[in-house]
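Chain and conformation:
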Amino acid sequence: MADAVSETKEKYLKKLKTSTIWCLVLSIIFAVTGLLSTFKLFTIDIEKEKEKLKEAAKEVGFKTQNFDQMYGTQGKIFSVVSLIVFIITVLLLILAFKKIAEGKVPSKLGYYSYILGQVIAIARIVLPGGFTSFVAIQIIFCLIIALPAILGISYLLKIDDK
């Protein structure tokens, strides 16, 4: 009986390791791109950039009222908060990966932090412009990106049950 429980735990730890790697890789990508976009938000001439984007948007028929929100205070706040969340997520997932490598059960905190990052991304998508079909596609993408963390939490719950 103890061997069966141990085998099941090892099976879920192996699956958890895969989910953790996916979350870690995606979090590193999000943290790096977040760092670059946040740096850009604080270093560019925002008025000049907004005018360029508005001109390009008018040429293809897009609405331009959301540019003020994207490049204004709200956009900067979302960028900074998102960057902080993903840096913390990377650190928590590295700790989780180390525990898994040692055969120990990690904390769920890194996975919840990853999901929080996706919730922030969804809020950043929806708040400035309301709900459109393009926004729906972006939300679906964020939910798909959240799957490794959701699976990781489910594996941890199954390990806790054993």
Q: What stands out?
A: The CA atoms of residues 5 and 162 lie 6 Å apart. The chain is about 85% helix and 0% strand. The radius of gyration is 20 Å.
